[in-house]
Fold:
Amino acid sequence: MALIGVRFYSLWRLHCGADSVTLHADNIDEALAQLEEKYGSRLREKLEAYGIHLEGKIQDYSLILLNGITLRNLKITDLQEGDVLHIFPPAIGG
Amino acid sequence: MEGSRISKDIVRCIVESAETYNAPDGKNHSVINLKIVASIAGSRRISAEEVEITALKQGIIPKRYLRNIGTIGLDGQIKLLQAIVAVVGVGGLGGTIVELLARQGVGHLIIIDNDCFTEQNLNRQIMSKESNLGEYKTIVAARRAGEINSTIKVTTFLERLTSENAQKLLSGAQVVADGLDNLPARLAVEHACRCLRIPYVYGTIAGFSGQLMSIFPDDVGLSSIYGSSNAILEQGIETKIGNPSAMPTMIAAMEVQEVVKIITGVGKPVRNQILLVDATECTIDRIELRR
Structure:
């Protein structure tokens, strides 16, 4: 299993209660499952307290990059030692 | 500016009209004031912008730009006066962008928006007032830019930017600044800017956070964040947490700084990385992007 870093930004950092964490996972799906288990419900509960209701899992309402590229564009989903996941909410207003 | 239109007589007139200004640091600057610029432009039938550029080329600073010169120099101010910048959307971000670009002395602004001010804009959109609700944002912004800086030229388009008209609307611009509020329009701007080979300064807001990056034609861009498929988000978490008063101006100011850096060549634009600004904890993070 690869040891990877996970970094939270902006509102997610505030509500997940951590700047960054490490976890062991072989691939993206495993990493996302761990993140959902550790932080998904916590994040949704914190936001619910502000009247913000989010549906789905953490990956459904977050922008997630692996080493600077969105998961949506990844061709290979296996993780390597030292990989970094960046997770933040979509901010699209103006 | 057409150099051939500026006769030696006009140059002499500008030089003779200059006065000395004693700056707080004790240094003397040769300056020219607003009324003299307007007077020379009127009597010699040239634009005020041409008068200002000619003055700067002689080392004479239009007083309105005196506090700009220490950072961008005379050449930087000349480049700004000769520049054309498009601002797409003049709501929270775009209103402040227009305001600051006019003050900075960008010579020609293209303002694009088909929306009108509503009451819910009042908390954050700097051009909106109780007295102009219902007016076109583009018209209000153009009027405001002219009130701030009558030297600059403003072109307005009362149109909604789409993938069909983006290249036509942005044609001629040297840089495009983002005042939009949805992803499809931003993707249309990015695509048009790549086709036109011009930089696009991307900025977004949601709650107490915002994002910024400058995308040059061959740079990594929005697909690294949002993906390349058609199944893209239209809007983000701002639909749930709103857009409070300070964030638009914070991100807009950073966008304007990017535009100034790109045009003058001073400093280093935020390229191939995204800045994530969080006002809750006063942090700015950078993520290097890849294709």
